[in-house]
Task: structure prediction
Amino acid sequence: MKLVIPEDYKSNEDLYRTQVLIKEIKDYFQINLANNLNLKRVSAPLFVSTKSGLNDNLNGVEEPVSFNLKEAGNERMEIVHSLAKWKRYALMEYNFKSHEGLYTDMNAIRAAEEPDNTHSFYVDQWDWELIIDKEDRTEAYLKHVVNIIYRTMKSLDEYLCGLIPTRSKLLKDQIRFITSEELLLKYPDKTPKERERLATKEYGTIFLSQIGTILSDGNKHDNRAPDYDDWLLNGDIIVYNPVLDDALELSSMGIRVDSKRLNEQLKQSDNLDRLKYDYHSLLLDDKLPQTVGGGIGQSRLCMFFLQKAHIGEVQVSYWPDDQRRTLANKGIQLL
Result:
């Protein structure tokens, strides 16, 4: 477990003021994101049945928190990791139309996480999903959506400068688009995380795309579940975070798989057994809409824009006692 404490850093707001600013950030951002992407807010599940195949498998190794539900014939239920698949199903069920979408507050437990400055067992994010046309399954359309989200982040950046007179803007005018292969060629002797740090330090904010594909060195930049993002049309919005002198991922998103790409990616990842699930059957039968979607970390957004050194300064979660003591001794207040 790696814990970074910046030299001379102390929490710069008391706990009450921090909570006030968290609410300002969340209210402002979600309202503007919904307006800019034509999204309607919906309610979302905290858990789904295992056999539905709706849970996010993340990197494929994390075990979800689960339990048996007596009233459902003792069926196994899983606390969601995210709502990547559920959202697409919901768009069909709610009869949304082309270029209409939804967003929701997603709360999850990821028990396999190793808590540090930016990772928590508790995950809170805005999960969003937008119906697109088949003709929109292009790199150009993905970049169009990314620019809308980045514009919303820049608007929040400016809004906070009005609330906090001593604050300076953090984001540059443009986001830099770069593929994981281009990043490898730029920094061939660095690890994936080192590449992200160097790129964000140079460009400010990057959209790192094509995550999950095999690179020219035979490796992946990072793993991605094979059954929601199209690995050729996905990516992460990553910012340079001055307070930690490191890269910080704020959003993971992408154009979703169609039936062809689902089959290809399940074969590549040796996950063809997932075709037994109801969700995947709907995809193969082309009954689900074509969509683009993703998740935007609520606590990470607050952490970045308030320049907090630890995610526990903007969210309530469990932290190991030794970590709490170390942070408290350095003047860092956790919620």
About this structure: The first helix runs from residue 15 to 37. The chain has a mean pLDDT of 90. The longest strand covers residues 229-241.
